[in-house]
Each structure stands twice: as structure tokens, then as C-alpha cells.
Amino acid sequence: MTTFASLGVPNALAEVLSSQGKVDAFPIQADTLPDTLVGRDVLGRGKTGSGKTLAFSIPMVARLAGQLPGNRKPGRPRGLILAPTRELATQIAAAIEPLAAAYKLSVTTIFGGVSQNRQVSALKGGVDIVVACPGRLEDLMKQRHVSLDGVQITVLDEADHMADLGFLPVVTRILAATPPKGQRLLFSATLDNGVDKLVKRFLTDQVTHSVDEVDSHVEAMTHSVFEVDGVEAKKKLVQQLASGTGRRILFMRTKHQARKLAKQLTEAGIPSVDLHGNLSQGARDRNLLAFSSGSARVLVATDVAARGVHVDDVQLVVHVDPPAEHKAYLHRSGRTARAGSAGDVVTVVLPEQRKDTAILLRKANIKVTPVRVTADSPQVSELVGEQARYVEPVPVKAVQQPRQGSPRGNGSSRSSNPRSGGAPRRSGGGGQGQGSQGGAARQHAAGGGGGRSRRPAGPAASRTR
After folding, report:
1. Is 139 strand, coil or helix?
2. Residue 458: is it exposed, middle or buried by C-beta count within 10 angstroms (0-12/13-18/19+)?
């Protein structure tokens, strides 16, 4: 392994990383840091979970504090990181803030789904580094709350996901507003859907580092395909898969079904929260906190969580609904077996889904033999392992939702198109009550009455490497 210190990372940053238990660099970090620390433009190709966040956070802080010192000016950041979703922007900021604090650099986030007032105030006060979703950032640029003419380093993270969400025209306008001589770092799993055009236009004499292709396999990740006879058998199997002691993420196709399943599991004594585009930012934050802290063991999500959710020790990913295409399968599956840890991936398949699922897995280069199972099959029991204790759900009082389209209630921005930042969404706060159920639930031994006991919540463990 190569240490951060041996790669030329300044002592102040190496000490911060060491205090977090991060001494040895991951491959994408070891490959790119020698170039990024001296100011080269870099194209980094690596799949999610490979450690890209620190690969660009370290050189940004090191260079802004050392080689590129400058005065903090209102509305004129010196470092810019673009991310496709609010969740990813928040987690990038959480990763870079301890590094920035070592040099007293300030960091703020900009994304839609919340009032812009706090963001505008932060910009007026002067910030060194902005982590932003493209839609809200462009809105604030048009309102002249922020200018990018002082940006010295620009990072584009998850560029291929930007393309999938239709953000490349906005991203192109934002990059064009930054100084052409600034350093630019672009990280992406693939170069399709127009990402290659960004590389050609905005990167100069770039160095390319490829660590993992999008369809490369993680050795510690196992894949299983469980075939069931019908809807009722699927329901029982999914509940059994959700019943283990470790964290698991269950992926659904629709927001409504994700919300419904999270509620059903919670009522069955398995604390669960949902994550999808209909939640307000506050509800998203509460639910992610419940999941990362351990008060909810299960996260039921749509593809909004396939990227941008970085939580340690997710033991199992379940494709309750197989995704529509193979890239989504790989990104969903990438929520487990991260940063060297092991993990399992299960796809639940109804009879009418078998043919499409076989095609999907072939395109993803996943070789696995489907197994016909029920909830009681030994293959399922072996995968689930020890079952968690029953958690009594706490009744949640009904909360009157704001009228559809109301400008009040959830703090959402006026725009409802993809330009408002993060993934395209519709206003509304469905499922917001789920976030507190797991944390307040009373726990019982499985199957028992008797005395009540609390199990301490698991450690908060957002992975950012």
C-alpha cells in the first residue's frame, strides 16, 4: 500500500486523514494525486466506491491553501465541485470540510429542494469552496449571487450520471463560466452520453487514470438471483431478506412502492426508511441519518440512491424490482462491498421477469445461475444470517400535507425541472414520517413478550474514501 504522506500530501492533511484511520491510499488516489497536486488536469475513470472523493478533495484543499493562495471574496469561490445529486453534494462537503478546516478554508453546499436564503447568505459572507448541484448553481449565477470568474480548481464528479440526468447543457454553461486556465478534474465511470465532449472541450493536456471500468467486478461482492412463483411469495421473501441484523438497501422502481414497502417493513418490526424524489430535503436528511446511525436497518430506495449514498457496512443490496438497464444494476449494487468490505447482491425475479433479467445480467457481465426459492429456503437463510430483534413501531400522528404546488411547506425551490438541482423531482413530502420511526421504536426480543430493552444505535459511518 502507498501512504498519503509518500504521495506528497501535506502533513496537515495527512494528519487529518490519519485521525480518521486513513493512512494508505486507494488505487485511484495513489494514481491521480501525483498529477493533481502539481496542477495537472486529470480524467479519472473509476466506478462508484473506488475512493474518488478524497482523490479530488485532497489536491483542491492542498493547492488552494498552498500554491494558489487568495483572499476570500463575497460571491466568488476559488474552488468548485459539481455533483449530480443533493445527497452526493452533502457527502462530498462532509468529506472535504475536515481537510479545509486544517487551513481555515470555508466550504458551503448549493442545491435545490431547500430555500436559497442560507446559500445566498453563505456566498455573501465569502466561501473558498462550493459543492453544488448544477441547476441551483446556475439559478444563483443568473441572479448574480455568485460569479465563477475566480474559480481556480473545478471538479466534475459522477459526470456520467450528470449525463444520464440530462444536466450536461447546464454543466457546459457552468464550466464555460470558469477561467480557462484553471485546473480541471473530471471523474466518471464511463465517457458516454456526451461526457467525452466535456473532456475534449474543457480539459487541457489531461492525464487519464483508469482504475475500474463500470462493469468490472468487486471480488468481495457476491451476486444471487432468486426466482419466486408469484407476488405473494415475493413479498414474503423480501421481508425475510430485510430481517437480518446488518444494513441493507432495497431498490424499487417507483416512489410509491418504495414508500409503501418501508411502511410495511416498519409495521412488521423491521425499522425502515424510504428515499426517493418526492421527499423534501429535510426528510431525505432525516431518513439517511436514521439509516447511517443504525436506528433504521433498512433503506428502501428508488434509483435516486443508486449513486450519492455512501454508507459503510451495507451488507446486502436487494433488487426488489430489477432495474431497467444494466448500468443501473451496477450502480445499485455498488452500494455494498465498498472500500474493500464484503457484500451480497440479490435480484428477486418473478416468472415474467426472467427473460429480461437474464439479458440485463449478460449486459452487466454478471455470471450467476438463478435459484428458485421461497422465504424458507436454506439459500435465503444462509444469506440473511442472524435475524434482528423485533422493533415495535411507534404510531406517527397524521400531518396535514401542503396543497400540491404550494410554495410553502417543504422549502422547495420554485422550479420543478432538473435545473433546480439534484435529480428531477416533483414537490411533496410523501413518507416524511418514516424518518423517526426506527429511532424511537421500542425493541423486543424476537417472538417474545417479557421485558423491554433498547439496543444502542450503530455508529454513524458515512464512507467518503
Report:
1. helix
2. middle
